[in-house]
Each structure stands twice: as C-alpha cells, then as structure tokens.
Amino acid sequence: MKFRSKIVDVVCLQHFTRVVSTISKLTKTCTLRLTTSNLYFILCDKVANGGVSMWCELSQGNFFDEFQLEGVSPDANEIYLKLAPENLSRALKTANNAKSLKIKLTKKHCPCITLAVELPSLTTSSRVVTHDIPVDVIPRKFWNDFQEPAVPDFDVLEANRNGEMNLKIETDLVSVATHFKNLENPPWDGDESQGPSQDRHPETMAEARIDIRKLQQFLAGQQVNPCKAVCNIVSGRIVHFILLHEDVSLQYFIPAVA
C-alpha cells in the first residue's frame, strides 16, 4: 500500500483544515477511507442503539495538487485507516501559513499518516515541520462495515411540506420554541413523487425528540460553511442532516430518544 499527496493552494489547505476540524469535534475516532478519486471520513455507530453516524465525502481533485494511491490490490484499490481526527486537526493547525503540505502513509514504529509542513523562511533553506499520526490499517475483510449509511424513507423534508419547522427545547422549568417558515421543500433525488412524505398532508408535522447535546455538538463543530443544509426527519426515529458544499458533503445522523 502506498499513499502520498500534496496541497499547495493556501485556500484549499485552509478549507481542508476546516473540514478536519469539524470532524474532530464530532467524534474521537473515525475511519479514513482513501480512494483514487475521494476521501471519506466515516463514523458508523449504530443509530438504533443510540449512537450517531457520520459520512463525510471529499473530492480529492478539489483539494490536492498531487495525489497518488496504491491500494491493497489492483481489484481493491483503496485504503481504510482508523485514526483520531483531533490528532490530524492539531497537526494541520501548524500549516495555516504553509507554503505546501505533504501527506503520506508511512511505517515508523507503527503505521502513520505523516504530514510534512513546509513553512515560509527568510533564508534560502526551507523549514519543514513533520507530524507522525498513528493509524490502524483496517483489513479488507472488514470494509463492508464502513459503507454509506442507508437512509430510511423519511416522512418529510424540513418538518412539513409547507416549509415550516419548529425547534423546541423542553426542561422541567421552561419550554422554548423557535418557529421557521418559508423553508425550501426540495425533492429527494430529483424525483418529486418519491417517498411516503408525498402522501402526507402538507401541514402534518413529522417529529423526533433528540438529545440536545448531540445537536449542539454538531452545530457548534460545523466549519464546512455549506451552501445548502437539508434536514430529514423520520418520525420518532432519526434526524438526518446533510451539509452541502461545492467540495464537501457531510451527513450526520442523530437517533431519536423516547
């Protein structure tokens, strides 16, 4: 297995840093899937058991000036790595003003993702800061555990088909509600007739009660700066968020609680 890449464009580097920072605030460990065309940050906790799931997809061509990958075999040209995104985020913070960033898979005392940050210098010699981030290589037999989460047929988009959404916070002492109106009610997969929500009365609400801490963690950690955000609600089961950017898509699943 071989992997090496390079980012020169400072805007791409800053954008990549923001994405990784967002991931680091959502989970302590995740799977990094590398393919010739995309990078994926994956968290596959079982939503049915109260865990959250995440699927973040980046097109490598929108970030990297160089990108070379040799997977485990010609017919499985991919690499799956388990890592702590906080370690990657911390290393990237040293690259804010870098001239370039090189990322490669190395073998030190253990498998590592190695970042070589070339910093500006007042002399002719360059300054390079190196970070070795330990990773676990995931064997091919476990790859099927890291597929894109299946999304159940959802009842409505963004609360009801009239474009209304209510966010309620309830405690023993107070109940507060925020009401949103005139939200877009986009078709799913471009098919306006798809899904059971099309048979629902436009004013009927789909509801899901979720842990406010998990919602706050998602909202506070978000640095993707999406051009569009979608909220799908499966009544009593799941709230599914999608953040869409030109270069990144991030899906996050929060299970409903009783």
Record keyword descriptors for this entry.
3 helices; single chain; 14% helix; nine-stranded antiparallel beta sheet; elongated; 258 residues; five-stranded antiparallel beta sheet; mainly beta
What does this protein look like?
A hairpin with a 3-residue loop joins strand 14 and strand 15. 14% of the residues lie in helices and 38% in strands. It has a nine-stranded antiparallel β-sheet. It is elongated, with a radius of gyration of 21 Å. The protein has helices spanning 10-26, 85-92, 212-221; strands at 2-7, 30-34, 38-44, 53-59, 66-70, 79-83, 100-107, 111-119, 127-134, 136-137, 156-157, 165-170, 175-180, 228-234, 238-244, 248-255. With 258 residues, it is mainly β. It is built from three helices and 16 strands.
